[in-house]
């Protein structure tokens, strides 16, 4: 006769200053985590919070003996959870515990290390009537889990992970005389479990969508675009220059410069790099997006006498959040205190103003030079005039309130980069520097920080995820 597994109690002794980021305690659902004060926390007020229980601190058992009282958490759901604690309202430490998922097949427990899984590309399974025969191979081969790529509608590239609709089934699943539904798939998954003793898991895609997704045209705010992410505007302009240059290469317009229509060796690549750096990219004057209008600033300052609070500090450029040409500025109050000061070498007030203005102007030119040097990767010198009429017109699109919403950034990955860092945020210039290994079929989705920031996208993905969770035994992120 079987015995019921008794819940375990895992004791964690807290010590001040311990941030155990490399220690994970593994538990199962139904187990308990019990927190005790260590010697370094005796006699102080300690509050403990966990991501499993929310923002409210855990309650200590009653008693005055700090060695005996404890806080306890029941592991009610699977997942990785963080705990943090404070001592007398100051951060004192943190750590993690992992609650393992419990899998069952037809009511029988399946240990995680007992999983044998075979992956199938959904787009290769054919119409729904063929699925059972094609998946039966996994059953007869002794597997107990089937892993499917997304079963949803694929985009223009037909990539298994570039979805044009997260709420429609893949095009290949339908029969000539029958439109398959999600309910049909759910019943099939249940049948596999009941008759084959097999579980089914499916991939979910949250961070991008196919570039031809109709819902993105209706809700462009769900993407990183030149309207809600103005820092992408210079990158868009560079992108268009590359597009036009590449088209001209294909038309044979650069043959006389050593670039044939078909680029097939390193010498051609070197010629392309040289021409881009010295002739093509400098013409778009990319540095201007990071510079100030020195003339405008100098003519607007230093009236009313010298400051009474001079400041010795290096003035820096404040980047224009709209990324307009010469749209950046400086901290006006600091500028007044740094440059509008008494001058012993001035013979009159007019002379003082001229000397202060000259010093301010020289510093702005220096800052503009730094802004130009920071973008040396796009050119070594500046030329007058736009690269082409098309590029000039397209630059205007990036600032148009309506059109800029549809200039969307693709997703991809950055080599040797922190995968947890969002490379599409303003503090990153991955798109401008062309460091992104771009997935040209998929638009990067822009959730911001909370559902209120982009309600449609959060609700769209919430419904998609819930539907997948109802159909399958597990989801792979």
Automatic annotation (TrEMBL):
InterPro entries: AGL/Gdb1, AGL_glucanoTrfase, GH. This is Glycogen debranching enzyme. GO terms for molecular function: 4-alpha-glucanotransferase activity; amylo-alpha-1,6-glucosidase activity. It comes from the Eukaryota. Pfam families: hDGE_amylase. One of its GO terms (biological process) is glycogen catabolic process. Residues 108-369, 399-477 form the Glycogen debranching enzyme glucanotransferase domain. The lineage of its organism: Eukaryota, Metazoa, Ecdysozoa, Nematoda, Chromadorea.
């Amino acid at each position: 006769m079987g015995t019921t597994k008794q819940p375990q109690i895992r004791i964690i002794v807290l010590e001040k200053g311990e941030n155990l980021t490399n220690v994970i305690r593994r538990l199962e659902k139904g187990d308990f985590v019990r927190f005790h004060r260590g010697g370094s926390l005796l006699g102080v007020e300690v509050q403990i919070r966990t991501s499993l229980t929310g923002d409210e601190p855990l309650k200590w058992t009653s008693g005055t003996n700090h060695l005996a009282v404890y806080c306890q958490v029941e592991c009610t759901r699977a997942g990785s959870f963080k705990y943090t604690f404070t001592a007398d309202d100051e951060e004192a430490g943190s750590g993690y515990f992992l609650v393992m998922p419990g899998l069952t097949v037809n009511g029988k427990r399946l240990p995680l290390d007992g999983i044998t899984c075979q992956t199938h590309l959904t787009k290769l399974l054919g119409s729904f009537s063929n699925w059972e025969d094609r998946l039966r191979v996994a059953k007869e081969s002794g597997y107990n889990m089937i892993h499917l790529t997304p079963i949803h509608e694929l985009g223009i590239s037909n990539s298994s992970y570039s979805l044009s609709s997260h709420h429609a089934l893949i095009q290949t699943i339908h029969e000539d005389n029958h439109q398959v539904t999600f309910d049909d798939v759910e019943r099939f998954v249940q049948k596999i479990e009941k008759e084959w003793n097999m579980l089914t898991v499916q991939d979910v895609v949250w961070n991008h969508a196919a570039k031809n997704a109709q819902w993105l045209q209706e809700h462009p705010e769900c993407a990183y675009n030149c309207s809600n992410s103005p820092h992408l505007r210079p990158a868009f302009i560079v992108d268009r220059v590359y597009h036009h240059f590449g088209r001209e290469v294909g038309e044979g317009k650069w043959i006389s410069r050593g670039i044939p229509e078909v680029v097939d060796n390193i010498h051609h690549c070197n010629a392309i790099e040289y021409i881009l750096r010295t002739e093509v990219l400098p013409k778009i004057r990319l540095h201007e997006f990071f510079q100030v209008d020195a003339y405008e600033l100098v003519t607007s300052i230093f009236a009313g006498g010298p400051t009474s609070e001079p400041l010795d500090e290096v003035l820096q450029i404040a980047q224009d959040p709209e990324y307009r040409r010469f749209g950046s500025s400086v901290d006006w109050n600091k500028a007044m205190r740094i440059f509008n000061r008494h001058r012993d070498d001035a013979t009159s007030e007019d002379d003082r103003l001229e000397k202060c203005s000259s010093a301010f102007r020289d510093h702005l030119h220096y800052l503009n030079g730094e802004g130009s040097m920071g973008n040396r990767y796009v050119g070594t010198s500046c030329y007058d005039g736009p690269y082409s009429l098309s590029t000039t017109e397209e630059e205007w699109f990036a600032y148009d309130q309506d059109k800029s919403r549809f200039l969307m950034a693709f997703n991809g990955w950055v080599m040797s980069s922190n995968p947890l860092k969002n490379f599409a945020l303003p503090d990153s210039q991955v798109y401008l520097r062309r460091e992104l290994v771009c997935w040209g079929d998929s638009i990067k989705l822009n959730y911001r920080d909370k559902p209120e920031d982009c309600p449609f996208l959060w609700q769209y993905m919430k419904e998609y995820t819930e539907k997948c969770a109802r159909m399958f035994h597990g989801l792979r992120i």
